Amino acid sequence: MSTTSFTKKTLGLEMAEPAVTPPTSTGNATTFAKKPKLRGKSKKREIPEGLWTKCPKCSTMVFDKELDENLKVCTNCQHHFPIPARHRISSLVEPSTFAEMDATMTSVDVLSFTGVASYTSKLEEYQKSTGLTDAVITGLGRLGQQLTALGVMDFSFLGGSMGSVVGEKLARLIERATAECLPLIIISTSGGARMYEGMFSLMQMAKTCAALAYHAQARLPYLSVLTHPTTAGVMASYASVGDLIIAEPGAMIGFAGPRVIKDTTQAELPAGFQTAEFLLDHGLIDAIVPRKDLKARLNDYLNYLMNGAGSVEGEAEGRLKRGA
Questions:
Q1: I need a surface site. Which of 65, 83, 170, 241 has the fewest CB within 10 A?
Q2: Nearest-angstrom CA–CA distance, 320 and 229
Q3: Angle at the Cα of 259 (from 255 to 263), degrees rounded to 5?
C-alpha cells in the first residue's frame, strides 16, 4: 500500500524578499520642514518667595503677614517660630521707650582661632546678615508702667552662643538694674558657650551669676524667660537662677543633648524630658506662657514683685524706701 507524504510549508517563507534600501538623498529630494512649536503662555502661576511659610509642626502654609501679626506663632497649631530680638523687644516694651545699652560693643579674636573659617570672618558674616553686633541686645525700657532692665538674646547670631561680649553686656545690664533699683528680665535662647573664645566664654557663666547674686541681695526681682532652644552654658548659669522662670510652649530646655546624656548615664530617658512641659511638671520652671500673653503676664509679675516701686509714678518713692 502506497503511503502519501505531505510536505509542511511555512506560509510567507518560501521565497526571501529582497531587502528594501532607502533611497539615497539627492539634491532634488523632497525635504519637509519641521513645524514650529506653538509657545503659549504657561498656565502655571509662580508664587513669589517670602509670602508663605510652612509650619514645621502641622505643615500648614501660613501667610507671612498673618504670621508676623501673630508674633511668629502658627495660627493653626500655635507652634512658636524663632523671633528676632528686636521684634521681641518691640512686642514687649511700650513704643519709643527702649534705650539700648552698649550697642557698639563687639567681640575680638583673642585666641586667634583658626579652622574652616576664622572667627573674625564669622563675626563679620553674622553682623552683616543679622544687623546685630553680637547675640544679645540689652537696655532699659518701660513695660506697662514699670521701668525695666531687659536683655534679649538672638539665636540667629552664631546660635545665640555666649562669648565675652554677651557676658559683659548682660553683667553691665544687671549692675545697672541693681544700681537703679530696677527689675530685670532676660529672655534666653542659646546653644551654649562660644567655642571660638574657649575659656573666656566659660568665665561669663560665673560673671553673670555673681552680678545676679548682688541683684538678689538688693531684693530686686529677676525674671528669666526661656525660649526654644535654651541649652548648655547659658542654661547652666544665669538662665536657671531667676526668681521666676518662665518658658514658651514647646521650648527645648536642657544642658546636653539626649544622645550625650544617654551615653553618659547608660539609662533610658523619658520621652520629651527636655521640653518646657516636662520641666514644668517636674518643678524646674514656674510657668509656660504663650508669646502673645507674655507682655501682660510679665507686667502682672513685676507689679506684684515690685509693689509699685520703680514704676513711672512710684519710682521716686520706691527708691527712697529702698535707700532707707
A1: 65
A2: 40
A3: 100
Is the link from the previous residue into 23 a cis peptide, with omega within 30 of 0? no
Residue 251 near residue 274 (C-beta atoms within 8 A): no
- For helices 164-179 and 199-217, the axis angle rounded to 10 degrees is 10
- The rounded Cα 261 to chain-centroid distance in angstroms is 23
Domain count, the chain: 2
How do the pLDDT tens digits run along the chain, 324 residues long?
455 555 555 555 455 555 555 555 555 555 556 666 656 555 555 556 668 888 888 888 888 888 888 888 888 888 888 889 999 999 999 999 999 999 999 988 888 887 788 888 889 999 998 999 999 999 999 998 899 999 999 999 998 999 999 999 999 999 999 999 999 999 999 988 898 888 999 999 999 999 999 999 999 999 999 999 999 889 999 999 999 999 999 888 988 777 887 778 778 877 778 888 999 988 899 999 999 999 999 999 999 998 856 555 455 444 434 443
Domain-terminating residue out of 58, 81, 104 = 81
Going from the C-alpha of 9 to that of each of 5, 13, 14, 16, the distances in angstroms are 13, 8, 8, 14
Q: Is 59 helix (H, G, I), strand (E, B) or coil?
A: coil
The CA angle 52-55-56, to the nearest 5 degrees, is 135
Alpha-carbon span 262 to 107, nearest angstrom: 35
What is the DSSP pairing of strand 244-247 with strand 287-288?
Answer: parallel
| Terminal-residue alpha carbon distance, the chain | 148
d(CA 215, CA 176): 10
Q: Between 85-92 and 291-306, two packed helices, what is the crossing angle to 10 degrees?
A: 60
Residue type, 77: C
We report the CATH number of the domain holding residue 119 as: 3.90.226.10
Beta-bridged to residue 184, according to DSSP, are: 149, 222
Owning domain of residue 66: 49-81
